[in-house]
C-alpha cells in the first residue's frame, strides 16, 4: 500500500471513526487512513467500560443547566447538548437504515434518564431545571415528582423505604439512552474498512511535521518496532489523551503554552441481579459546591454485551498516563518551558478544584460508600467493587493572568490553514461525536462545505434546524434505533 493519502486520521476512537465515515460519504474518491496504536479501535476512552455510556442529551445533567442568582436556570447548554445528541441519533439511524451499522441494540438501548435533587435547595434547583426545559420539544416528555410513592415506583433501589426527613425529588425522561461507544466505534471502523478506508492498527504516530503542502506522519509498528512515514495534505488528530503531545511535536503555535493534567475516573460497580432489577435508569445528582462537573455523581444502569450492571461514580484518581494504555512518563514528557508557567499557575489559581482532587485522591472506601448511600441508602460494600474507567486529560491554559483548567469542554484546534485539526478536552464527549465532527469538517474544509452540504444534510440535521422539525425527525430516528421509551421498570434487552 502506498504511503500517500488524502487524509490521515490519528486515533481509532469514536471521533476518528465518525469523521472517517463522514469524509467517506462526502468524498468517496479520497484515500483515507485511520492509524491506531492499539490492536483495535475503541479501546481507550470510547470503550464501554471506560466511560459511563450516557447518551448526553441534557435530560438529567445539572452541569448543563447552571443556576442564575435569582434561582432560575439557564437551559441553553442543555438544549445545545440535546440538539447535538439528536444529531448523533439521526446519523446513527441513517447508517442503520443503510446497513452500515448493525442492529441498533448492539450499541444503543433505551434507559430512562433522571435528575435527582436532595435537600431543600437541591429540590428547588431540580424543579427550576424542569420548569426551564419542559416547554422545549426535546424535553417535552420530562416529568417531575417529589411524591415518595412515584419516586419509589420510578427508582425502587433509591427511594423504597428511604428513611430520614431530607426532601428529595426526581425528574424522569423516558427518552434517555445507554450507549456502548466502543461497539459503535468498532462497527463504524469495520464499515469504513469495507468501503475502502484503510485502518492501520498497532501503529503509533510518534511525530507530525509539515513539509511544503504535505503533513508527514511518522509511525512506529508497536509489534516489530519498524518505522514508516505517511504523507497527506490533511491530518486529524483524534488521539484522545495522546493529542496534546502530537500537537507539541507538530509545533502548533496555539498550543505552545497549553499544559495537560490527567485525571482518571473510578466507578463502584455491581452486577448483583436484585440490585440491577431494582434500578432501571441513569440518575444524575448535583455536584457539591466547588467540585468540577466531572464530579457530578450518577448511578447508571449499563447494558454491555447484553450484561446488565450498575455503576456509581465517578471518583477521581490519579495516574500520570495520558491514556489507559499509555506510559507513566506521559505527564513529565508533556512539560515544556512554554507550558510550565501555566501548570504552576493552574495549581495556584484553582484552589477549590485542587482541594477537591486531593480530597478525592485521599478518599477512603468508607467515604465512597457514604457517597453511594446518598443514592442507595441500603448499599452494602460487599456488593460493590471499584473499577477503573478512562483517562481524562484536562487541558490547562492561561486566561488573562490566571491558569485555567479548560479540559471539561471540547475544543477544536485547527492549524496551518485548516490542514490540521485536533480535538482537545472530553466533555460532553462521545455523545456529540456527529455534530463535533461536522464542526471539524466546517473548520477544516470551509471551501468544500457548499458542495458537501446536500450530502451532509441527508445524514445530519443542520445546526439551525427548526426545533419542531428536529423533534419530528428524531421520533423517526428513535423508532429506527429501537429507542421507543421503556415502560417503568423495563429496559429493552
Ligand atoms: C470516566 C469517563 C466517563 C465518560 N462518560 C461519558 C458518557 O457517559 N457519555 C459520553 O458521551 N462521553 C463520556 N465520556 C467521554 C468520552 O468517553 C470521550 O469523549 C470519547 O470517548 C473520546 O473519543 P476519542 O475518539 O476522542 O478518544 P478515544 O476513544 O480515547 O480514542 C483515541 C484513540 O487514539 C489512540 N491514540 C492515542 N495516541 C495515539 C498515537 N500517538 N498514535 C496512534 N493512535 C493513538 C488511542 O489508542 C485511542 O484508541 C467519558 C469519559 C471518561 C474518561
Describe this structure in words.
It is a single chain. The chain is of the alpha+beta class. The protein has one domain (7-480): FAD/NAD(P)-binding domain. The chain is 33% helix and 25% strand. It contains 15 helices and 20 strands. A hairpin with a 4-residue loop joins β19 and β20. The longest helix is centred in the first third of the chain and has 22 residues, at 76-97. The structure holds flavin-adenine dinucleotide. The site of flavin-adenine dinucleotide (FAD) has 40 residues, from α1, β9 and β17.
Supply the key terms:
493 residues; alpha+beta; FAD/NAD(P)-binding domain; nine-stranded mixed beta sheet; six-stranded mixed beta sheet; 15 helices; 33% helix; disordered C terminus; binds flavin-adenine dinucleotide
Mean pLDDT, as a whole number?
Answer: 90
Distance between the termini: 42 Å
Q: Give me the Rg, rounded.
A: 22 Å
Question: Spans with pLDDT under 50 lasting ≥5 residues?
Answer: 488-493
Q: What is the CATH class name? A: Alpha Beta
Discrete helix count: 15
In the CATH hierarchy, the third-tier topology is known as FAD/NAD(P)-binding domain
Pfam families: Mqo
Cofactor: FAD
Keywords: FAD, Flavoprotein, Oxidoreductase, Tricarboxylic acid cycle
GO molecular function: (S)-2-hydroxyglutarate dehydrogenase activity; L-malate dehydrogenase (quinone) activity
